[in-house]
Design brief:
Layout (H helix, E strand, L loop, with lengths): L25 H15 L6 E3 L9 E4 L14 E21 L2 E19 L5 E7 H14 L14 E3 L5
Antiparallel strand pairs: 1-2, 2-3, 3-4, 4-5, 4-6
């Protein structure tokens, strides 16, 4: 539908917990299309949550297709009202975020996750994700709870200026 501007810190909307969608209707499907379009238009982006485009609802898109760190890969998917059913095996790795464009940080995240949510068709879907796909899902879920990767860094010494490649 549309590529939307990405909200960045210090915008207060990034720190607010998101409201549940409840039922997937036309407005939710339009939001899903905007999430997908905005993610696709952003180089190296593997996920985007609704609060990052100014919408305070529990929805995100993830697609780790072709990423060198991905093991599981469910392709591009949008989930509404997602919830973690189980999570195991935390590992520390570097993360970045479109809403925090100048920084990266080391964050401990589970490497095996089972998540449930509704698809754009309003159907319940359960996904078992691991490795990088699990990290991406958990990162986007944090956005829905008003958290950024900066809230989860393993220490203050684990925040870094983003490298710029030319």
């Amino acid at each position: 539908m549309a590529v939307r501007p990405v909200v960045t810190l210090p915008d207060h909307r990034l720190k607010q917990p998101s409201a549940t969608v409840g039922r997937v209707g036309a407005a939710a499907r339009a939001l899903a299309a905007d999430l997908v379009d905005t993610m696709r238009a952003s180089p190296a982006c593997v996920g985007l949550a609704a609060p990052q485009i100014g919408e305070n609802v529990r929805a995100f898109v993830v697609d780790v297709t072709g990423h060198r760190k991905a093991r599981s890969c469910h392709g591009e998917f949008v989930l509404f009202d997602p919830e973690v059913l189980s999570a195991h095996g935390p590992v520390v790795a570097r993360e970045g975020c479109m809403s925090v464009p100048d920084l990266t940080g080391d964050v401990a995240r589970a490497t095996e996750v089972v998540v449930r949510g509704m698809t754009v068709d309003g159907v319940d879907r359960v996904l078992t994700v691991d490795a990088f796909e699990a990290r991406a899902v958990l990162h986007e879920l944090d956005h829905l709870d008003g958290l950024l990767f900066l809230d989860r860094v393993v220490s203050h010494d684990s925040v870094f200026h983003r490298k710029v490649y030319r």
